[in-house]
Amino acid sequence: MDQAESPHAVVPLEAGAGPDNPPCPACGEPLFGWIAQKRGLAGPVRRCESCGLGVVGEAGDTEAALSELDRLRDGETIRIENRAGFACSLGGAGWSGLRPDARYLFTVEAARRLIASRDQIVKSERWQPWAGLAATWQTLLNSVTFGRNVALGALRGAPAVSAPEPWQRGIDGLASVVLAIPALLIAIPVELTGGLFRRGAVIAVRVELF
Asked: What is the pLDDT of residue 19?
């Protein structure tokens, strides 16, 4: 039996390309479905299996992704909520990085490929432990609330999605208070492990020209 007929043959990602799987703006590989349409998001979410980029709604192009990446820039540093982090893997549809204002959900590798298109390189990457801990903590709270990012929305004014009904919003507020400490006790080892394996929830990427 030749390779084409073997049940163990590796199918390239390109084989999944089609109208439902548009090319990734960062690396050109097909985007595959990840999360269905959710309240507060512009559309369903796709993800790239190669560079890890997540896309909310229409895929767009490299320039659109670079434009959003640049909005996260502070001088030579870009701070991303890491879609490849442990918090995202743990939270799935409850991940705190699924903000209502986000269209592209970055990884370090996706950022590397995007900025390479304009002759820049990632010079260094640094885990942001406190910001990462807050993101992981909120991700855990999202698993027990009707809305998303309720606690960080109240504490820091972060973009949040409130529950549609008043009684749900009341429960969300109570749950965020009652479960704040238990969620923090879980978030600490999760985020420390993520940082150890370079999969922290928030990463600062320093970029330079070639």
From this structure: 67
